[in-house]
DNA sequence: TCCGTAAATCGATGAATGTCGATCCGCCGA
DNA sequence: TCGGCGGATCGACATTCATCGATTTACGGA
């Protein structure tokens, strides 16, 4: 668990006199910042237990699921669940479709692919 | 992109008279709720572009990285970066180690494994 | 012992978030 | 045409969050 590597190239080679920077700055390409913003937005939407369970249910039952099935899963008021679904929709994770009185939600394929790939 | 499945088993079989529930409730085991809480906590910690980039840098440079290398990567004050590192540490994603004046951070192996596995 | 430096902590502040009740909108059956 | 239902939206509220400047802590060099 606790690693103890000799010292990586970016770390200070040894003790230096104070007053000088301990190491050369790490460059971080701006291109990856956009990717980081996208993935962080997805992670943020998943960063709530209710929303993560909503996505889990939607993924488990591949296909569309009626909102009236999702609300009783949680000890929350209906507007609250609707709000969480909207957050997931705005993040591009789920989509919705109305059929008469009922509304159905489904996971958008590949919406989580980038984050999943980054996580390994 | 836009699926159009016939109708999954959990959806109402057909149009029903209003006043009756449109479908039987989906059961969601309480055991998975704990897992959802854990993964949501991880996702929440990653749900900020700065923190996600911090983890990315730490993962790219396998090993320990000095805080003094991380701060200039962002247009943020040093206490702000320190705060984000604390959030990641509290979430169990990274660990820290002091060596003299400097502090080194590293990614804790398998900290992201559960979320990564769930994402597929 | 004293000073300078790296990093963490504190306190404040403005913005975002989760939750709810009340209300509104669309669609259906009567 | 009307009433009822599912679901979305609105407004309010308390809480959390991201950020900063100022301060504190810990360590090393002189």
Give a description of the structure.
Two copies of one chain form a homodimer. By secondary structure, chain A is α+β, with helices and mostly antiparallel strands. Chain A has one domain: Orthogonal Bundle (Arc Repressor Mutant, subunit A), CATH 1.10.10.10. Helices cover 44% and strands 12% of the residues of chain A. Chain A has five helices and three strands; from the N terminus they run ααβααββα. Chain A has helices at 30-46, 49-60, 67-70, 78-90, 113-119, and strands spanning 65-66, 94-99, 102-107. In chain A, helix 2 (49-60) packs across helix 4. Mean pLDDT of chain A is 82; it is low at 1-20. Chains A and B meet through helix 1, helix 2, strand 1, helix 3 and strand 3 of A and helix 1, helix 2, strand 1, helix 3 and strand 3 of B. Chain A binds a DNA duplex (30 and 30 nucleotides) through residues 15, 17-19, 22, 48, 50, 66-68, 71, 76-80, 82-87, 98, 100-103.
Summarize the structure.
Two copies of one chain form a homodimer. With 120 residues, chain A is α+β, with helices and mostly antiparallel strands. In chain A, 44% of the residues lie in helices and 12% in strands.
Keywords:
DNA-binding, elongated, Arc Repressor Mutant, subunit A, 5 helices, disordered N terminus, three-stranded antiparallel β-sheet, 120 residues, homodimer, alpha+beta
Number of spatially distinct domains of chain A:
1
Decide which structural class fits the backbone of chain A. Answer: alpha+beta
Q: Span from first to last CA of chain A?
A: 19 Å
The CATH architecture term of chain A is Orthogonal Bundle
Classify the fold: give the CATH topology of chain A: Arc Repressor Mutant, subunit A
CATH class of chain A: Mainly Alpha
In what range is the share of β-strand residues of chain A? 5-15%
Spatial sequence of strands, sheet with the most strands of chain A: 1-3-2
Flag low-confidence runs of chain A.
Answer: 1-20
Assembly type of the chains comes to homodimer
CATH superfamily of chain A: Winged helix-like DNA-binding domain superfamily/Winged helix DNA-binding domain
Radius of gyration of chain A: 22 Å
SS field, number of helical segments of chain A: 5
């Amino acid at each position: 668990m606790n690693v103890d590597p000799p010292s990586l190239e970016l770390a200070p080679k040894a003790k230096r006199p104070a007053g000088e920077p301990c190491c050369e700055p790490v460059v971080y390409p701006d291109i990856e910042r956009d990717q980081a913003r996208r993935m962080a937005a997805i992670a943020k939407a998943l960063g709530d237990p209710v929303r993560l369970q909503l996505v889990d249910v939607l993924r488990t039952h591949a296909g569309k699921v009626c909102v009236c099935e999702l609300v009783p899963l949680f000890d929350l008021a209906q507007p609250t669940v609707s709000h969480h679904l909207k957050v997931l929709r705005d993040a591009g994770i789920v989509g919705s479709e109305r059929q008469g009185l009922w509304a159905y939600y489904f996971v958008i394929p590949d919406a989580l692919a980038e984050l999943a790939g980054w996580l390994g």
